[in-house]
Specification:
Chain lengths: 185, 270
């Protein structure tokens, strides 16, 4: 049986050269449906497209998206009611969940605004944290970007980055997402 | 958050002086005094001789309680979904790998493939799936001191959403020096529960859980028996002792487990 790219990536150790580049490659094409800021997608349409509900919808808006990328913004990291806070703090590792919600939202938007069945996070690779916590007012609006690097039946790979409003990198990594029922990504 | 309800159709325990459910039930019911002893879990008979040889004390603990609870339920082992919870995972194997990697003066630092294989957090769950030829989903969780409520909530959610029985196996084992200096556990302890969808007949009791974001209003989750309180406080899996005592006594109980900043309210009705 032919093994899928996702399975190969899951089986490989980090740091080993494989088909996925180490850094997201800039997309030089003009995205088909890049939406200007003033048409931005807000919380209600986001909530309809991610598998989460209530306060677990962590993203406030979409800045732009295209065939294989999405950039969102939010202020939920500063909300004391954020359900991911523990002892009043929002650990930087929680940024991964922000990134995965951006990826899920991208899946829904790219499918024409239809919520997609939930995928499973199979593995995280190359995660690097440049901050201890996200509940820091100096971050301003949190910028959450995800870029789809690979997709096929059975799985997806997204590279992700979180930045401060001023553009400082807070967190980056890569998520391998499994779509267990073999539906087409 | 909504209330989750299930039927407890299997239970097991293994810990110091608590060697399996039949032997422990009178102790947990308060009919026999608790007498802690050193109680290593036996090599799991469910595994092939080859696999059995590769298991250490932590995997044995997990497989012992998983096997006992599943057997009591009478459900086919290869059809059970499962949730495995452990705060430490296998600290014995991880400690031994770290010792090998930091041995002074060694030119070539080699670790055994068996050790590496056993070091991952879901090793015990993997042995269980192999032993039972079960291809149902397995969830493995760790949540430090809150591993018991985290695992119980996950299992209750699975029973409710999938309307299928779930084996819940929660275990924690002390780590060797020097790791124990950072995380000291009083003794090995594990328990198993088989949770079936609510409304089914039979079994031991109905269980209901509900998460609330506020901390518990009282310390209702401590064991009835003072003699068991040190164990309950000294091992995250033993936070379940209050529930086990309730089942052993066949009484109704409501207690609140601390879960991170919030709590998990647990109600048991025989």
């Amino acid at each position: 049986m032919r093994r899928s790219g996702v399975e190969r990536a899951v089986g490989q150790r980090p740091g080993i050269n494989h088909s996925i580049p180490d850094h997201p490659i800039p997309d030089h094409r003009i995205p088909d449906h890049c939406i200007p800021d003033h048409w931005a997608i807000g919380r209600d349409p986001i909530a309809a497209l991610v598998p989460h509900s209530g306060r677990m919808v962590l993203l406030d808006g979409v800045r732009s998206w295209g065939d294989n990328f999405i950039t969102c913004w939010t202020r939920s990291h500063l909300n004391p009611e954020n359900p991911l806070r523990c002892a009043g703090r929002l650990a930087a590792t929680c940024g991964v969940e922000y990134a995965l919600q951006a990826a899920a939202l991208h899946g829904g938007l790219a499918a024409g605004g239809v919520a997609q069945p939930a995928g499973y996070l199979a593995a995280l690779r190359d995660v690097s944290l440049h901050a201890d916590r996200l509940d820091d007012a100096t971050i301003g609006d949190l910028q959450v970007s995800a870029r789809m690097e690979h997709h096929e039946t059975g799985g997806l790979i997204y590279a992700f980055e979180l930045h401060t409003e001023a553009g400082e990198l807070l967190l980056s990594g890569r998520a391998i997402i499994s779509l267990p029922h073999g539906h087409v990504a | 958050m909504s209330t989750l309800t299930a039927r407890i159709v299997g239970v097991s325990v293994w810990g110091p002086g608590l060697e399996g459910w039949p032997a422990s039930q009178p102790v947990l019911a308060g009919e026999v005094d608790y007498a802690p002893t050193v109680s290593p879990a036996p090599p799991p008979a469910i595994l092939s001789a080859n696999e059995r040889r590769r298991t250490g004390p932590v995997a044995r603990l997990a497989l012992t309680v998983a096997g006992e609870a599943a057997a009591m339920s009478g459900l086919p082992l290869d059809r059970l979904r499962s949730v495995f919870g452990s705060g430490n995972g296998d600290g014995i194997v991880v400690g031994s790998i770290l010792a090998d990697l930091t041995k002074p003066g060694e030119q070539e630092r080699l670790i055994s493939p068996t050790q590496f294989h056993n070091s991952v957090h879901n090793a015990a769950a993997g042995y269980w799936s192999i032993a039972t030829s079960c291809r149902q989903p397995v969830t493995c969780l760790a949540c430090h001191d809150f591993t018991w409520p985290a695992s119980l909530l996950a299992a209750m959610a699975e029973v409710t959403v999938h309307e299928e029985a779930v084996l819940l196996c929660v275990y924690d084992h002390p780590m060797p020096a020097p790791l124990d200096a950072k995380r000291g556990l009083i003794a090995p302890f594990g328990l198993g529960l088989v949770l079936a969808p609510a409304g089914q007949k039979g079994g031991m009791a109905e269980i209901e859980v509900q998460f609330a974001p506020e901390p518990p209003p009282d310390n209702s989750a401590v064991p009835y028996q003072p003699a068991l309180r040190a164990l309950a406080a000294g091992n995250p899996a033993a936070h379940a002792l209050r529930l086990l005592e309730t089942l052993a006594r066949g009484v109704q109980d409501r207690h609140a487990l601390t879960y991170l900043d919030g709590r998990l309210d647990v109600t048991v009705m025989p």
